[in-house]
Design brief:
Elements: H1 11-21, E1 32-37, E2 44-50, E3 60-66, H2 88-99, E4 103-108, H3 137-148, E5 154-164, H4 166-174, E6 194-197, E7 217-222, H5 230-242, E8 247-252, H6 264-267, H7 270-291
Parallel strand pairs: 3-4, 3-5, 5-6, 6-7, 7-8
Antiparallel strand pairs: 1-2, 2-4
Helix pairs in contact: 1-7, 3-4
Length: about 290
């Protein structure tokens, strides 16, 4: 199922967005490290704040970013877990949002719980319950939202949520109107919209009939995803749409898991490169439609 044409930019916009994605994050300014409480009531989370770049208003919309099962940091971090060792994908997306005039915050939900290095592929059944993407990580997302609402430079009711892989699953759970972490959420009291990249859509079996999203959600996945099931996600979205929610699914032919990872191992795959060229303008247009007053 394709998105409405109103979310598709011209070829020139796609090229411009791709140039944004090619930022050398090591040359750009590093994000600021902050801490704030999770709504779980006992975990102090770490966040990395990318401030708006270029001309912008005194108060701006914001984006909360949720990392996947590999964690927030590069696989080459070598036990140094800070702003300088964030994965290139997270750094580049943070700068994309900053260049769009938003404040973005990447939430490290694994490091404060003792797993800064994340987890390898096929480790799902051995991960601790303290990192549950359906019952725990939404509490982290809402903790980040509460933190952003304490900042004078953020428009507190104009915040979007983006997640990859395990963080994408957490984003789906967070955007449900029965999500842990907030009572009877609305776009004004919760998130204005969710961007979900290649999630695992079983969601611990807690949404067998789909989710009823309280705000718009867009899901992106490759048909050759080697880690999670595109069919399961397509089915979840179809069931969720039956509830009347504004949720759509974009499937990229032959693209793999982590298709937007800027490293050559992924971008040398023509299907991944094509998906990346397409997804950036879609994502920026989507957040522009739901975040900008």
């Amino acid at each position: 199922m394709n998105f409405s044409s109103r979310f598709v930019h011209t070829a020139a916009s796609a090229i411009a967005a791709l140039l944004l994605f090619a930022i050398d994050a090591t040359a750009a300014s590093l994000p600021q490290r902050v801490t704030f409480p999770s709504v779980d009531g006992h975990t102090t989370l770490v966040g990395y704040v990318f401030v708006p770049e270029g001309p912008h208003a005194a108060r701006t919309p914001a984006v909360v970013m949720m990392h996947g099962r590999a964690g927030a940091y590069s696989s080459a971090a070598n036990d140094v877990y800070d702003a300088s060792t964030l994965s290139k994908r997270h750094q580049e997306w943070g700068h994309i949002w900053a260049q769009q005039g938003y404040l973005a915050i990447l939430v490290d939900g694994f490091g404060p719980r003792g797993y800064p290095h994340g987890f390898p592929r096929f480790s799902y059944d051995s991960r601790p319950e303290t990192l549950n993407e359906v019952t725990v990580r939404p509490l982290d997302a809402y903790g980040a939202l509460a933190y952003l609402r304490t900042r004078r430079d953020v428009i507190g009711d104009r915040v979007g949520l983006q997640g990859w892989s395990n963080g994408g699953s957490a984003t789906l759970a967070t955007m449900s109107d029965t999500s842990a972490g907030i009572t009877a959420p609305t776009p004004a009291t919760g998130f204005r919209g969710g961007l979900v990249f290649y999630p695992a859509c079983s969601l611990k079996g807690q949404f067998p009939d789909g989710i009823k999203s309280y705000a718009p959600v867009r899901v992106f996945q490759g048909s050759a995803d080697e880690e999670v099931s595109p069919k399961r996600c397509a089915d979840l979205v179809a069931k969720s749409r039956a509830h009347g929610g504004d949720i759509e699914f974009q499937l990229y032919p032959d693209a793999t898991h982590d298709f937007d990872d800027p490293n050559p191992a992924h971008q040398d795959n023509p299907a991944n490169a094509a998906a990346t060229r397409d997804v950036i303008p879609r994502a920026t247009a989507f957040f522009a439609s739901v975040l900008k007053p």
